[in-house]
């Protein structure tokens, strides 16, 4: 039996939530087959790209009205220069939480960098903290049975030297190529304040959470992206079952896990 959890839920919602809800399937639930069929339809390129464009413009309009111009400028730069692979509301959640965690002792980390857009946001806010970035730089590894079938092996590949160039204006940045957590030995002995975890697949998610948790400082935060994906959801559920975690949903498809040492 797992340990007790504290959970605070804050739900964002937008056009993209239709696609995300369709992917939230559990074996044996009514409508499971219909949900999977709808999810596959919504992720066909012509339909998905059209919805994504409208969704992005709508969210940017919301951010322009409600949030600070500095955040919007930074997010817009990540979209234009590094093809940021998250919706604007999730990007603002990343911005807000990384800014908050800059006040917590410890280094900052990202697993799953793609072209460095989200890493650029984190590095802009980290101050003099060290930043460690990890990616295969060869795209996604092979899929498991828990993972969404619209993914393909080597999707989201990027060149390490190009990401390093994009982040070159920041100090204290170390990039490591390889499959995480096997590539994570550089973190041994480090204490962490913030991790952006964006790996998409079940095995990478559960292995990363188990590797990182004991390295988190008191009040350290792991921000998980794409929590609507089946493999990611399964990994989170398994991890939460065995750990004392303060958690809350944020953005449109993110979850934050906070470690409080006094609870462990």
What secondary-structure arrangement, pairings included, does this model have?
Blueprint lengths: L5 E2 L9 H7 L8 H11 L2 H22 L2 H14 L5 H14 L5 E5 L5 H9 L5 E5 L24 H7 L6 E5 L14 E6 L4 H11 L3 E10 L4 H12 L4 E5 L3 E6 L5
Parallel strand pairs: 1-7, 2-3, 2-5, 3-4, 5-6
Antiparallel strand pairs: 6-8, 7-8
The count of β-strands is: 8
| Arithmetic mean of pLDDT | 87
The radius of gyration over CA amounts to 18 Å
Percent of sequence in beta strands: 15-25%
Characterization of this structure:
This protein has 264 residues and is of the alpha/beta class. Helices cover 41% and strands 17% of the residues. It is built from nine helices and eight strands. The longest helix has 22 residues, at 45-66. The radius of gyration is 18 Å and the shape is globular. It starts with 5 loop residues before the first strand and ends in a 5-residue tail after the last strand. Mean pLDDT is 87; it is low at 1-28.
Summarize the structure.
This protein is of the alpha/beta class and 264 residues long. It has a single domain, classed as Rossmann fold. The protein has helices at residues 17-23, 32-42, 45-66, 69-82, 88-101, 117-125, 160-166, 202-212, 230-241; strands spanning 6-7, 107-111, 131-135, 173-177, 192-197, 216-225, 246-250, 254-259.
Using brief descriptors, characterize the structure shown.
disordered N terminus; 8 strands; 9 helices; single chain; 264 residues; eight-stranded mixed sheet; alpha/beta; Rossmann fold; 41% helix
């Amino acid at each position: 039996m797992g340990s007790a959890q504290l959970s605070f839920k804050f739900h964002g919602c937008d056009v993209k939530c239709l696609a995300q809800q369709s992917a939230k399937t559990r074996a044996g639930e009514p409508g499971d087959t219909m949900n999977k069929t709808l999810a596959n339809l919504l992720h066909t390129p012509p339909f998905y790209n059209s919805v994504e464009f409208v969704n992005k413009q709508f969210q940017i309009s919301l951010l322009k009205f409600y949030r600070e111009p500095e955040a919007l400028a930074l997010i817009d730069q990540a979209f234009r220069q590094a093809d940021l692979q998250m919706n604007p509301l999730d990007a603002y959640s990343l911005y807000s939480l990384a800014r908050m965690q800059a006040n917590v002792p410890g280094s900052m980390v990202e697993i799953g960098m793609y072209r460095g857009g989200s890493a650029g946001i984190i590095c802009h806010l980290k101050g003099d903290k060290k930043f460690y970035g990890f990616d295969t730089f060869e795209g996604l590894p092979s899929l498991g049975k828990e993972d969404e079938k619209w993914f393909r092996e080597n999707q989201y590949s990027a060149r390490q030297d190009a990401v390093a160039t994009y982040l070159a204006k920041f100090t204290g940045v170390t990039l490591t190529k390889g499959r995480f957590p096997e590539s994570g030995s550089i973190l041994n002995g480090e204490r962490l304040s913030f991790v952006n975890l964006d790996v998409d697949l079940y095995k990478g998610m559960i292995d990363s959470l188990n590797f990182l948790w004991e390295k988190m400082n008191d009040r350290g935060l792991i921000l998980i992206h794409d929590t609507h994906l089946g493999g990611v959801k399964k990994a989170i559920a398994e991890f939460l079952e065995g750990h004392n975690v303060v958690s809350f949903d944020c953005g449109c498809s993110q979850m934050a896990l906070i470690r409080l040492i006094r609870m462990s």
